[in-house]
Design brief:
Strand content: under 5%
Radius of gyration: 15 Å
Largest sheet: none
Number of helices: 2
Helix content: 25-40%
Bound molecules: flavin-adenine dinucleotide
Number of domains: 1
Length: 65
């Protein structure tokens, strides 16, 4: 979602020639927001909680916090 303009992201209808659905635009916005947060934090960011034993159950792909 990043553009050639620093810190400017483009989402939704303006960048999709054919997938014109409101939910796709909303999803694009959510993905761009995670991109921004990851960039700010300097590491991949996700905004959901996981159970404390998730790593034990599902492996290291899930980082329990
Ligand atoms: C006739 C029609 C029917 C549709 N029906 C459906 C449907 O049934 N279901 C569905 O899911 N999707 C439907 N869509 C598609 C859906 O409307 C779009 O996918 C969605 O609105 C795109 O959202 P967006 O935020 O990317 O862009 P937009 O909703 O187009 O929002 C862009 C906003 O930016 C503003 N803007 C533009 N230029 C500037 C500027 N220079 N400065 C400031 N603001 C600016 C505009 O005024 C607008 O408010 C339909 C689209 C059309 C045209």
């Amino acid at each position: 979602m990043e553009t050639s303009v620093e810190d400017a992201y483009a989402t939704g209808a303006m960048v999709r020639a054919e997938e014109w659905q409101a939910v796709i635009s909303a999803g694009d916005g959510a993905a761009a927001a995670l991109n921004v947060l990851s960039k700010e934090k300097g590491e991949h960011y996700h905004d959901f909680d996981v159970p404390a034993d998730a790593t034990e159950l599902f492996g290291s792909l899930v980082d329990a916090e």
